[in-house]
Amino acid sequence: MLLNRTQKNPIKITDKKVVDWKYATCGYCSTGCSIEVGLNEQGHAVSSRGVGGADVNRGKLCLKGIMEHELFNSAGRGDKPLMRDHWHEEFTETTWDQAIDKTAAGIKEVQEKHGRDAFAVISTGQMFTEEFYTLGKLTRGLIGTNNYDGNTTLCMASAVSGYKRSFGSDGPPGCYEDFEHTDCLIAWGSNLPEQHPIIYWRMKEAQEKRKFPLIVVDPRVTMLAQNADIHLTVTPGTDIVLMNAFMYVILNEGLQDAEYIEKNTNGYDELKAEVDKYDPVTASKICGIDEDTIRVVARLFAKANAAMQIWTMGII
User: Fold this and answer.
1) Would residue 118 count as lying in a domain?
2) Which domain holds residue 43?
3) What is the CATH number of the domain that holds 293?
4) Rounded Cα distance, 296 and 290, in Å
5) pLDDT, the chain, mean
6) Following DSSP, what letter does each residue of 2-65 receive, concatenated?
7) For residue 297, with 0-12 CB atoms within 10 Å meaning exposed, 13-18 middle and 19 or more buried, which class applies?
């Protein structure tokens, strides 16, 4: 039972004593939101806000961006070098000079005993371009090992390769503004409300104006799937089968733009031969989506004046 519904308490905004705002880019996800971090008289980060004129987030931030300044003083954040001689021992605090000297000595010892490539460096995908450049110089130029990798190999490297082979560029050909021009949207393995809330806001704002259908391909019942017009609960690992089935319907029903394909693409005959193996009846037995639904979605997508597809890491 809800009580005191008529009683309204005023919203109190705490004065963080901000004396200066510094421009930054949110580092949580790949959306690229512009933020300003507020500093107090002591130079400590005490607040975060979106940049109103930014093209990407237009002044908005998700909860992670709003609280980003708290990273600097969050519990458990490493702010001092720790060292131990054996993995089963507890870490003890040391100086930066001692930590660097021990690390350098350990690298030299490994390489002298087992060769230069016996030492490897693994990085994150969250660093800035300048930091990646410096780490590359340190790893290959100074340390001299070829074993340099990062978590991007497990996530974005395949996408970069696919973009390069398909479009000649390592980045996607679309942009956020495309939401405002599309008439049909298919989302593959994407849960925008939780993964990229600002992009979700951009998409929903456009959808409310254009009323385009949202089709979500995901075995999970995500927040995005719950708001979809059509949710395709594909069998995990069979996304390509479903894609080929869509293309089968489009090509065999003559829904493609033949003139555009002739002028701007190559490998059409090879593609046609491959997708002919995945008619809706065959594909439905593999991907778990019934054949009629495959045909309906393929036609809906192909007949849209401007169709759009997005994907995230939920796709294999």
Assistant:
1) yes
2) 20-72
3) 3.40.228.10
4) 10
5) 92
6) ---TT--PPP--------EEEEEE--SSSS--EEEEEE-TTS-EEEEEE-TT-TTTTT---HHH
7) buried
Assess whether 194 and 247 both reside in one domain.
yes
Residue 78: inside a domain? no
Q: Is residue 128 part of a domain?
A: yes
Same domain, 198 and 285: yes
Contact 293, 283 (CB under 8 A): no
Beta strand 184-188 with 307-311 is: parallel
- Per residue in 66-102, pLDDT (tens digit) is 999 988 888 888 889 999 989 999 999 999 999 999 9
Looking at the structure, do residues 61 and 114 belong to the same domain, yes or no?
A: no
Across the chain, the runs of DSSP E, i.e. the strands, are: 20-25, 34-39, 45-50, 82-83, 92-93, 121-123, 148-150, 184-188, 214-217, 230-232, 307-311
pLDDT one-digit tens code per residue, 11-59: 677 888 999 999 999 988 889 999 999 999 999 999 999 999 899 999 9
pTM for the structure as a whole: 0.82
109 by Cβ neighbours in 10 Å (0-12 / 13-18 / 19+) ranks as: exposed
138 and 41 inside one domain: no
